[in-house]
Amino acid sequence: MDLQLNEDQLAVEGAIDKLAEDFATSPVDFHGFALVSDELDKELEEGGYFDIAAVPEMGPLSAAVSTARLAQLPYTAEVALSMLVRPHLDIELPRPFGVIEHGRPGRFVAQAKTLIIIDGPVGNETVGIAHPQEGDVEALPDSLYAYPMAKLVGTPEVKQLDAETAETVKTWLRVALAAEVAGLMQAALDSTVEHVSVRKQFGRPIGTFQALRHRLAECAVLTGGVRWLALRAADSGDAGDAALAALHAQDSATRLIYDMHQMSGAMGMTLEMDLHLWTYRMKALLSELGGRGGQAQVVADNCFA
């Protein structure tokens, strides 16, 4: 499979990099969890970036690259679902998007104009679309997940999708998850590498000690693996590829979160260091779509039937 970007995809990648420059650092006076940028969302909307998956010259591969890049920012916006799920559902659906899975709180639900409702018995879930009205959702401002979290408290009308469309939506939800986690892992790794390069112990940067270098190298391999599996899944659109990418993303994120915080020491537990903006977002993604067990079952059904 050739994942080399064409000229149009490279142009989009460059444009996303340029756009991201204005959001690359968090405000000096920010000491919270959810750093949301309406301006980032607005620039992406006005630039037409949420529609790139539907453009043949760019497609889902370009959308996955863009999702991973934007996930590296300290700021967050509803990107992954709009870029990777909406074009395969109905690009005319109003965004932002949110997901309510088995009644649990979800990311960007308070801001969402379109909700994907996943319910029913595990392994045989139904998927529906709802458009919440005022009073249907309740924000959870005290959440530690570094996303704006909210829960569904009303009963909006839900339009159930047919089985084939539901499976397509779940496939692209997994691709979106993997692409977002790839970016979050890279940002967390970069932040930790910067820390261990300047934090000294015994008269030298702790990043020069072999034990940490080995663990950082392992985390870099995991991060690269998640990225390439996410891009493969975006390029193929295959349910097995998507589940494998999501499984590796959730499994690798569990390891990386632990290592990055341990290597960052006490600083990694403060709000002064941006590390939590990426690791706590990953924590929110660990249980989505059934978690590792759910992804493993889909991998077994699609890759080893």
**Element-level helix/strand string:** HHHHEEEEEEEHEEHHHH
| Name of the CATH first level of the domain at 165-303 | Mainly Alpha
Mean model confidence by pLDDT = 91
Output the CATH homologous superfamily of the domain at 165-303.
Butyryl-CoA Dehydrogenase, subunit A, domain 3
SS summary, helix count: 9
Q: What layout of secondary structure does this protein have?
A:
Layout: H1 7-20, H2 38-46, H3 59-71, H4 80-89, E1 97-101, E2 106-107, E3 114-119, E4 126-130, E5 137-139, E6 149-152, E7 158-160, H5 163-198, E8 200-201, E9 204-205, H6 210-236, H7 239-264, H8 275-285, H9 291-303
Parallel strand pairs: 1-3
Antiparallel strand pairs: 2-6, 3-4, 4-7, 5-6, 8-9
Helix pairs in contact: 1-3, 3-5, 3-6, 4-5, 5-6, 5-7, 5-8, 6-7, 7-8, 7-9
Written account of the structure:
The protein is an alpha+beta fold and 305 residues long. The chain has a domain of 139 residues: Butyryl-CoA Dehydrogenase, subunit A, domain 3, CATH 1.20.140.10. It is globular, with a radius of gyration of 19 Å. The two termini are 22 Å apart. The mean pLDDT is 91. It has 9 helices and 9 strands. The longest helix is centred in the middle third of the chain and has 36 residues. Helix 4 packs antiparallel against helix 5, helix 5 runs parallel beside helix 7 and helix 5 runs antiparallel to helix 8. Helices cover 52% and strands 10% of the residues.
